[in-house]
Design brief:
Elements lengths: L3 E2 L4 E2 L6 E5 L6 H16 L9 E6 L5 E9 L15 H9 L8 E9 L2 H17 L4 E6 L1 H9 L5 E5 L21 E6 H10 L4 E2 L9 E2 L7
Parallel strand pairs: 6-7
Antiparallel strand pairs: 1-11, 2-10, 3-4, 4-5, 5-6, 7-9, 8-9
Helix pairs in contact: 3-4, 3-5
Pfam families: T_hemolysin
Protein name: Thermostable hemolysin
């Protein structure tokens, strides 16, 4: 089960005043989906038709959406990114990282959307914190060069698993525009290691009350 809480956790120094976990029946679901869709339309000419089940939405003090990202847990079924892989995500991860990987300890993120590069950089530590405190050990996602550059600026180094080829994607009515012309790749990362690194660089800060509310994903039974 995933729940939304407002603990004294961590908050970005880049101005997110609040965060919310937006499920399918949430009153803000349409607004957040439209925000994500607008970013993809503007950037790639894409028209999204589907979204990940759990959306994290980050706002400023006026309630304006600054960034959002979607999450799907490995325990919930097949991941979107597995279309790009030759087998289960946990097998691909285990082979690449040379460690045992349990499906219950992995998740995919996607639907990355932000109004600016600064908001995008602020989103990644927040997302990492939420995943870490949900018990997620491994994260997978599809990244364009622009998104990879954002991770680079944070000195995070996700590992490439495979090219994300449009020919492998099941048709759900989405018009991808120029998205695949950016040559995206499936990347993976160690959430615990990334979280510890961000803490060491003070990219995550205790006492979230200084900035506002942060959303934490809580997943019963998730483990590495």
């Amino acid at each position: 089960m995933i729940t939304s809480t407002t603990p004294a956790g961590f908050c970005s120094r880049h101005g997110f005043a609040s965060a919310s976990l937006v499920e399918a029946t949430h009153a803000q679901r349409q607004e957040v989906e439209q925000f994500i869709a607008a970013v993809y339309l503007r950037r790639y000419g894409a028209q999204l038709r589907s979204f990940l089940p759990h959306l994290l939405a980050y706002r400023d003090t006026n309630g304006v959406l600054l960034a959002a990202v979607g999450v799907r847990l490995g325990s919930a079924g097949r991941l979107f990114v597995e279309q790009y892989l030759d087998g289960p995500a946990e097998s691909a991860l285990a082979g690449r990282m040379s460690v045992p990987v349990a499906r219950s300890g992995l998740a995919e993120v996607g639907n990355f959307a932000a109004i600016s590069s600064g908001s995008a950089r602020a989103l990644i530590p927040q997302m990492t914190h939420a995943l870490h405190h949900a018990g997620v050990r491994w994260v997978l996602f599809t990244a364009t060069r622009t998104l990879r550059n954002t991770f680079d600026r944070l000195q995070l180094q996700p590992v490439a698993l495979a090219p994300a080829l449009q020919s492998r994607v099941k048709d759900d009515g989405t018009e991808w525009g120029s998205y695949y012309a950016t040559h995206p790749h499936v990347l993976c990362g160690d959430v615990a290691a990334g979280h510890a690194f961000l803490l060491s660089r003070q990219a995550l800060h205790p006492q979230a009350a200084r900035w506002g509310v942060e959303t934490t994903l809580c997943q019963a039974g998730v483990g590495a």
